[in-house]
């Protein structure tokens, strides 16, 4: 948290201020906090008790729109007190009960704050004090009275409502508590506050562990929700059902019988569901009749499904979006037919459309009990923006009046519902006030609640209870859901998947977690002052055909699924929707994004959680089982650092308990983690429990050094210069990629901003980028990262793809030619009104060196000896013995070659010529040079240092067509250590040497590599191996008897990472290196294949013209890596 001097302007953040002389307490410094957005904050410190005694914590607070506590903790014992925010400079004392501790005990004071948007708080006199004997006796009396009140309360419970065992445990605890109080007989000198608190805790625990006598045996554990009324809504949104059935999806009952339409809806009813929600779009089709997808939910589909629900004994909620496709907080697009209407015309159209549609539904026999006027209407409705806008509220009023008119005409109760999302932003009272001020009459205020987006249930309860308290409205959750796993089963990426909405959650991604989430949401709504029910969103949106990316038929299944999504609208969007919603559906159309959140499995069989609305009324239990074995927390290290894998991973169970279990990590995976090479490495592991083996993994990221200061904004604005409007650093973590800090932008009018940092760099190749998320933008908006070197900018465009859907703009190949160059990196935007989002995790990395080109040694001379590699100082040394690097002039090389040709032809004593060229860094040999020696007894020897030389013979070029060649990359890194130590150690040898040759595929000409392994190894064998990164193994290339001066030579087919070993005898190998075709494996991507084979993605595509889409490959597909 950033501390700064407080000012009267009340900047956002923490600060200190001095009370004025007229303040109610004193004029000392106080701690204050103001927040423009809703935030949860915690601060803590620890002190030591100087002697034994009873201690309590207290503080004074003043402010508004803040709740919170101060607590005092000693070990596992804790006492707390709620704060009071009574207004400006009205200070109120909050004081905890006392804890009895021994001398030297560590006492932790924690202040927890829940601040609404615009809330502020002043804190003073944070104290830990030793309580007096009088105070302690009074505290004991209060606690004893609390214990007696619990006994009295629990005696009123009915034994018949609970199981015998749990009732017995409660009675035993009550008897023990009564005996304890009777023994005290009002004299508390012989006991302590802590002892009485322990009695209270034990009694409450026994009460909480009472099991309902109605509990049923099931496949999941569900705690009974007490007090549910018979009319409490347990609903499901089944809108996609008809499109899925048209696509060929089959559903089954719990006995495995295939269901027709009528029996499917009866299954819902028999499972405890009493309401069905169906969305309606006005005209979700293009001019040719092609559906936009998402169920193609026109009015006729609502009639068909609504009648099925009614016939099964369920009521229906109709969800009018007043749009031709999806309406949500990011978009409220007017339907095509209303696009050019005046607000008066549109208002009349809303009223007429609503009345006519409802009458059509009722005439068809659909039991409509509720009607939504809009869907997640935070930012508008029917193409009108902002609830403060009169044009918006008049639409709400027209919709509600239409419902009420039909209700009156039909003499049938139909509740009008308004629907909003994002309770975590704490704006619901603002919305309710806008509706009330505009005279909008409605019955139910509904909220969406998805835990991975929408904050805590306590906050949801507070938000909706405020609506009830102020405006008397009923409240409910209109949408919620939870995933049973992170896997995709239809070929379209899911909302909840690995790396996206899968961290920091209270529930497992399992069927047990799904049951727990649903039960807790139902319980929270039932505890609200006027909570009437919960709807689960799209429980039957499963794959048309089950897709497994590792299966042989994966490509065919995905093709069939895509065809169904397009033809029947059974995916979230079809390509035809781009004419209506180009920015969202037009880019991301496809299948279901929630197939892993259904209440049916991927094949259409119901999960136990389908019965959740029944189970919450009785309770359900199952034998304790393993729920999930968690993956280890990801590890991030800097280049060259070490890492330690955890010894245990978290295991959760079906009863919602958890523990740590030992994990065995795969040794080969561990050895393959190259901490000297940036990248992501996956180490797989196994956990053995109860005779079963479970898989887990740990992802280790080796980060290149980030040269930016404060790249994640965890230090606020430090090192960054912000200019423009609508841009600031926030620290609440809500829109961050990692951590708490992020760069937030929003403005209610068109705006621009520019955020920069200047840094001094040495010569090299660099990249600069970061991560961007958000929405509300227009096509003309621009969001970019840029780098300015000597006033010349390089830029990369980012995209706003929705909340927490991060794009990664990156400027690559930033070339700095001089040490000490000042470079400015930046983030800038030209944005339209209402655009919102955030930047986070910026980075500036060095990705390569700027090295002078290779040079020719002065005047190459003819020699009668074959090409050899220079000697090293010893067999184990890797000293660079090459000459100083100068600039290579390949034209000079060619001229010198031609001069030597003349010399050879004139001197019969010269049989061959070696042209020795010293090369360091990147070496690209022009085809013209090769052409000058083609067919001649001349050899080009390229010396890279450290006893390694690459050569090409003119004799070997006979018959080689050189006209198509441009240059050959023969860059050698003789200092490389890219082969994992464990893999290298698998070859037993007297000496080893590693090197790396730039891999651009198979060489088009014959290339030899000469390696000096030391004269002391004369008579032994030098053996060449190439490292296969995919298989994590060394592949044998050949052996060579070491010459008297320590030389070995090998034919080199292709670049890559190599190791030369020295052995007394020639090894007998079975694993050989063969360059050529590669068969795509499950999990492969083209970029990963290119990286493993040391080539760019463009080079890989050039070798494989059959690749049409860089993002699509199929398992088994052959790729040319030569």
UniProtKB/TrEMBL annotation:
Keywords for this protein: Glycosidase, Hydrolase
One Pfam family here: LysM
Question: Which top-level enzyme class is recorded in the Swiss-Prot or TrEMBL entry?
Answer: hydrolase
Q: Does the keyword tRNA processing apply?
A: no
The record's Gene Ontology biological-process terms are:
pectin catabolic process
Q: Which GO terms describe its molecular function?
A: arabinogalactan endo-1,4-beta-galactosidase activity; glucosidase activity
- Gene3D superfamilies to which the protein is assigned, alphabetical: Galactose-binding domain-like (2.60.120.260), Glycosidases (3.20.20.80), LysM domain (3.10.350.10)
Enzyme Commission number, as recorded: 3.2.1.89
What chemistry does it catalyse, as a reaction equation? The enzyme specifically hydrolyzes (1->4)-beta-D-galactosidic linkages in type I arabinogalactans
Pinpoint the LysM domain residues.
1076-1121
Q: For bias kind Low complexity, which ranges apply?
A: 852-873
In terms of SMART domains, this protein maps to: LysM
In the record, the note on similarity to other proteins reads:
Belongs to the glycosyl hydrolase 53 family.
Which named protein is this? Arabinogalactan endo-beta-1,4-galactanase
Name the source organism. Answer: Waltera intestinalis
């Amino acid at each position: 948290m950033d501390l700064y001097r407080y000012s009267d302007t009340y900047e956002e953040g923490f600060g200190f201020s001095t009370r004025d002389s007229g303040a109610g307490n004193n004029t000392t410094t106080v701690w204050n906090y103001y927040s423009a957005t809703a935030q949860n904050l915690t601060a803590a410190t620890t002190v030591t008790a100087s002697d034994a005694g009873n201690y309590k914590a207290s503080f004074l607070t003043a402010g508004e729109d803040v709740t919170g506590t101060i607590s005092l903790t000693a070990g596992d014992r804790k006492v707390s007190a709620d704060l009071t925010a009574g207004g400006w400079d009205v200070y109120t004392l909050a004081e905890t009960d006392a804890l009895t501790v021994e001398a030297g005990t560590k006492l932790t004071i924690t202040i927890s704050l829940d601040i609404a948007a615009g809330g502020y708080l002043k804190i003073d006199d944070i104290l830990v004090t030793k309580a007096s004997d009088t105070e302690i006796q009074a505290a004991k009396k209060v606690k004893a009275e609390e214990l007696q009140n619990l006994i009295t309360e629990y005696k009123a419970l009915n034994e018949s409502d609970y199981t015998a065992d749990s009732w017995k445990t409660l009675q035993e605890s009550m008897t023990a508590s009564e005996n304890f109080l009777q023994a005290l007989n009002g004299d508390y000198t012989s006991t302590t506050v802590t002892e009485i608190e322990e009695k209270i805790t034990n009694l409450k625990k026994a009460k909480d562990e009472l099991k309902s006598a109605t509990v049923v045996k099931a496949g999941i554990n569900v705690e009974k929700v007490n007090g549910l009324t018979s009319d409490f809504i347990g609903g499901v949104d089944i809108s996609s059902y008809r499109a899925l059935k048209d696509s060929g999806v089959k559903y089954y009952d719990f006995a495995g019988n295939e269901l027709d339409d009528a029996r499917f809806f009866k299954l819902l009813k028999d499972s405890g569901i009493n309401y069905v929600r169906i969305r309606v779009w006005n005209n979700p089709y293009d001019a040719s009749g092609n559906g936009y997808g998402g169920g193609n939910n026109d009015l006729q589909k609502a009639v068909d499904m609504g009648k099925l629900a009614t016939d099964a004994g369920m009521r229906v909620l109709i969800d009018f979006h007043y749009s031709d496709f999806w309406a949500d907080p990011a978009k409220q697009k007017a339907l095509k037919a209303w696009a050019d209407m005046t607000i008066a015309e549109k208002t009349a159209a809303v009223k007429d459309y609503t009345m006519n549609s409802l009458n059509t539904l009722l005439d068809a026999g659909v039991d409509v009990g509720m009607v939504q006027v809009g869907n997640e209407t935070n930012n508008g409705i029917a193409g009108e923006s902002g609830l403060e806008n009169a044009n918006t509220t008049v639409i709400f009023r027209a919709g509600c009046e239409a419902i009420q008119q039909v209700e009156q005409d039909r003499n049938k109760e139909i509740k009008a519902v308004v629907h909003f999302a994002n309770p975590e932003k704490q704006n619901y009272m603002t919305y309710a006030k806008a509706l009330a001020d505009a005279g909008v009459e409605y019955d139910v205020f509904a909220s969406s609640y998805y835990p991975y987006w929408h904050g805590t249930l306590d906050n949801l309860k507070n938000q909706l209870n405020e609506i009830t308290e102020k405006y008397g409205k009923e409240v409910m959750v209109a949408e919620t859901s939870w995933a049973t796993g992170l896997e995709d089963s239809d070929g379209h990426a899911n909302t909840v998947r690995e790396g996206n909405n899968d961290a920091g959650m209270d529930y497992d991604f399992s069927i047990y977690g799904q049951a727990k989430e649903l039960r807790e949401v139902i319980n929270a709504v039932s505890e609200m002052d006027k909570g009437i029910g919960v709807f689960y969103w799209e429980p039957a949106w499963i794959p048309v055909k089950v897709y497994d990316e590792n299966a042989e038929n994966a490509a065919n299944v995905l093709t069939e699924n895509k065809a169904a999504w397009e033809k029947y609208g059974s995916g979230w969007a079809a390509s035809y929707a781009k004419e209506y919603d180009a920015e969202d559906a037009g880019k991301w159309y496809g299948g279901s994004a929630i197939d892993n959140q259904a209440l049916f499995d991927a094949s259409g069989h119901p999960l136990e959680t389908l019965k959740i609305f029944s189970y919450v009324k009785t309770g359900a239990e199952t034998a304790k089982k393993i729920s999930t074995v968690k993956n280890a927390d990801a590890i991030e290290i800097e280049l060259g650092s070490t890492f330690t894998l955890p010894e245990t991973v978290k295991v959760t169970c079906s009863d919602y308990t958890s523990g740590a279990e030992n994990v065995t990590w795969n040794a080969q995976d561990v050895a393959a983690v190259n901490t000297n090479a940036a990248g992501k490495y996956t180490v797989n592991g196994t956990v053995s429990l109860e005779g079963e083996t479970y898989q887990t993994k740990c992802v280790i990221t080796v980060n290149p050094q980030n040269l930016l200061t404060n790249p994640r904004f965890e230090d606020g604005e430090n090192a960054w210069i912000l200019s423009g409007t609508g841009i600031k650093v926030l620290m609440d973590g809500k829109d961050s990629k990692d951590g708490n800090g992020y760069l937030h932008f929003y403005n209610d009018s068109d705006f621009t901003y520019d955020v920069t940092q200047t840094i001094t760099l040495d010569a090299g190749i660099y990249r600069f980028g970061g991560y961007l998320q958000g929405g509300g933008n227009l096509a003309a908006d621009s969001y970019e990262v840029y780098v300015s070197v000597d006033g010349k900018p390089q830029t990369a465009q980012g995209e706003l793809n929705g909340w927490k859907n991060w794009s990664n703009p990156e400027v690559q190949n930033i070339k700095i030619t001089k040490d000490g160059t000042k470079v400015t990196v930046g983030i800038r935007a030209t944005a339209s009104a209402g655009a919102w989002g955030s930047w986070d995790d910026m980075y500036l990395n060095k990705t390569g060196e700027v090295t002078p080109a290779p040079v020719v040694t002065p005047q190459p001379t003819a020699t009668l000896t074959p090409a050899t590699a220079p000697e090293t100082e010893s067999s184990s040394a890797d000293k660079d013995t090459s000459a100083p690097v100068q600039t290579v002039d390949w034209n000079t090389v060619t001229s010198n070659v031609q001069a030597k040709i003349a010399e050879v032809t004139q001197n019969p004593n010269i049989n061959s010529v070696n042209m020795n060229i010293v090369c360091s860094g990147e070496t690209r040999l022009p085809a013209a040079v090769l052409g000058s020696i083609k067919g001649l007894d001349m050899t080009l020897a390229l010396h890279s240092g450290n006893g390694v030389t690459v050569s090409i013979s003119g004799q070997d070029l006979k018959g080689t067509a050189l006209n198509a060649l441009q240059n050959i990359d023969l860059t050698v890194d003789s200092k490389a250590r890219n082969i994992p130590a464990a893999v290298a150690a698998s070859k037993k040898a007297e000496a080893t040497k590693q090197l790396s040759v730039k891999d651009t595929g198979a060489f088009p000409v014959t290339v030899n590599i000469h390696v000096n392994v030391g004269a002391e190894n004369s008579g032994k064998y030098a053996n060449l191996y190439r490292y296969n990164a995919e298989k994590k193994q060394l592949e044998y290339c050949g052996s060579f008897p070491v010459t008297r001066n320590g030389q070995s030579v090998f034919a080199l087919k292709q670049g890559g990472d190599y190791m030369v070993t020295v052995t007394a005898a020639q090894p007998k190998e079975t694993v050989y290196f063969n360059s050529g075709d590669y068969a795509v494996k499950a999990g492969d991507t083209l970029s990963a294949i290119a990286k493993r084979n040391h080539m760019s993605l463009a080079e890989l595509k050039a070798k494989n013209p059959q690749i049409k889409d860089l993002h699509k490959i199929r398992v088994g597909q052959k790729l040319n890596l030569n």
